[in-house]
């Protein structure tokens, strides 16, 4: 074994450990080390994944090479690999679908459990009926203001038209994106064993959540924004400006947590490729936002956006007090799940819960800004040393989201699936059993 191979093996070992740690801290070991230490271990897993992947592929020359079709043996090899990969895909998809079916039966859709899916149903039914979508959502004992951007609910028009559980649509979207990754995977010049491992990993990850924290699938549909972010990661490596626009718009109008990372992405793309392509992409994104949000919805009532932000602020306040089903004096449930540092502000901050929440918001904003600044400085330092910018932005997206959610002040546990599943995009770009240079 050469020195370079030994280094690659050691880094790969630690990378696998950190991915495993991050997964465990959201599933089997969630809150296992208490409300103060568990967030540290979760963040260690996320940041450790970013650091080790950076040293594994941050300076990789190009991507993993693809097999061409000029040789008969390559055609045969790709054919066999395709059969194996999509057999694994079909098995994993069916196995998890069977498990999800049991989850959906045990946790039926209803506002008494969670208002996420019932809210989506109201958005979609109003849209299909030609009614005003963005008006108060009325439930049996409470009313909420609409805060979801269009791409958080538009995908479920499919569900409503076919009269299927909205939660299945999120799973189908996820399968579609994984299939896109697999199409590229089968042509990568890698050992078959490695390709098989990568093909089955998404389903192993999903199954871990189903087994240990099935509520994240029963109450929420987080696989939809996860799918959108995985499309964004695919677009980082695509030459098409239209595909870049698609990836950005999908995330911007759904789970827009990447707001500090996005300007950084555009700035680095400007430095790398010049102003014209950045302007083209920016205009495409603006057009997408206008067509999907501003013209059909926001133009009818420009208070929709501001009122939604204000209401979200009030929603955050409701999560900083004991919930109706908790005992009086207990700490707020969602702050004690061992995923966010918000509990530190609640327990050790001064003033009323609202004042401690305000302090958490300030620190969250500063942490996100510093994370983006750190990524920019990293780019400026390493760009002349052979930095692979595309892979750097992929790793940087995960790093930024780990920081974003690590200090998030409304830490619903299902939200933490997003930064974790970005590890899949990184894994698909890491040569495991041999380096690209070999």
Summed up, what is this model?
This protein has 17 helices and two strands. The protein is an all-alpha fold and 438 residues long.
Structural write-up:
Helix content is 65%, strand content 1%. It has helices at 3-24, 34-57, 72-106, 116-129, 157-162, 166-185, 192-212, 215-218, 223-235, 241-252, 261-273, 275-294, 303-318, 342-348, 353-382, 389-406, 417-427, and strands at 137-138, 143-144. The radius of gyration is 22 Å and the shape is globular. The mean pLDDT is 93. With 438 residues, the protein is mostly helical. Helix 16 (389-406) runs antiparallel to helix 17. It has one domain (3-427). Strands 1-2 form a two-stranded antiparallel ribbon. The termini are close together.
Itemize the secondary structure elements and their pairings.
Layout: H1 3-24, H2 34-57, H3 72-106, H4 116-129, E1 137-138, E2 143-144, H5 157-162, H6 166-185, H7 192-212, H8 215-218, H9 223-235, H10 241-252, H11 261-273, H12 275-294, H13 303-318, H14 342-348, H15 353-382, H16 389-406, H17 417-427
Antiparallel strand pairs: 1-2
Helix pairs in contact: 1-2, 2-16, 3-6, 3-7, 6-9, 9-10, 9-17, 10-12, 11-12, 15-16, 16-17
């Amino acid at each position: 074994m050469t020195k370079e191979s030994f280094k690659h093996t050691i880094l790969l070992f630690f990378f696998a450990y950190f991915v495993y740690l991050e997964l465990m801290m959201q599933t089997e070991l969630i809150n296992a080390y208490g409300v103060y230490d568990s967030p540290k271990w979760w963040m260690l897993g996320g940041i450790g994944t970013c650091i080790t992947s950076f040293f594994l592929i941050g300076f990789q020359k190009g991507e993993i090479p693809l097999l061409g079709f000029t040789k008969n043996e390559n055609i045969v090899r790709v054919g066999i690999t395709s059969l194996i990969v999509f057999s694994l895909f079909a098995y994993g998809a069916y196995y998890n679908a069977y498990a999800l079916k049991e989850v959906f039966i045990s946790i039926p859709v209803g506002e008494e459990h969670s208002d996420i899916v019932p809210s989506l149903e109201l958005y979609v039914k109003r849209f299909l009926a030609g009614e005003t979508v963005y008006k108060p959502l009325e439930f049996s004992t409470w009313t909420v203001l609409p805060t979801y951007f269009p791409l958080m609910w538009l995908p479920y028009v499919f569900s409503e038209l076919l009269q299927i559980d909205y939660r299945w649509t999120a799973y189908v979207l996820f399968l579609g994106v994984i299939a896109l990754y697999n199409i590229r995977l089968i042509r990568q010049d890698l050992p078959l064993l490695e390709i098989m491992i990568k093909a089955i990993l998404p389903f192993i990850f999903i199954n871990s959540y189903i087994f240990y924290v099935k509520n994240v699938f029963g109450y929420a549909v987080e696989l939809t924004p996860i799918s959108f972010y995985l499309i964004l990661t695919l677009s980082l490596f695509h030459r098409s400006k239209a595909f870049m626009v698609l990836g950005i718009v999908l995330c911007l109008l759904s789970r827009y947590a990447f707001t500090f990372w996005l300007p950084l992405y555009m700035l680095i793309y400007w430095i790398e490729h010049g102003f014209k392509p950045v302007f083209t992409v920016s205009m495409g994104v603006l057009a997408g936002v206008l067509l999907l949000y501003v013209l059909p919805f926001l133009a009818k009532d420009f208070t929709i956006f501001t009122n939604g932000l204000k209401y979200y602020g009030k929603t955050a306040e409701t999560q900083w007090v004991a919930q109706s089903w908790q005992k009086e004096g207990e700490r707020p449930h969602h702050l004690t799940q061992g995923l966010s540092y918000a509990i530190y502000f609640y327990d050790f901050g001064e003033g009323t819960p609202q004042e401690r929440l305000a302090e958490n918001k300030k620190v969250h904003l500063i942490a996100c800004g510093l994370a983006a600044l750190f990524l920019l400085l990293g780019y400026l330092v390493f760009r002349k040393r052979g930095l692979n910018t595309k892979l750097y932005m992929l790793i940087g997206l995960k790093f930024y989201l780990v920081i974003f959610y690590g200090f998030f002040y409304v830490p619903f546990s299902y939200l933490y699936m997003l930064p974790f599943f970005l590890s899949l995009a990184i894994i698909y770009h890491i040569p495991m059993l041999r380096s690209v240079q070999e």
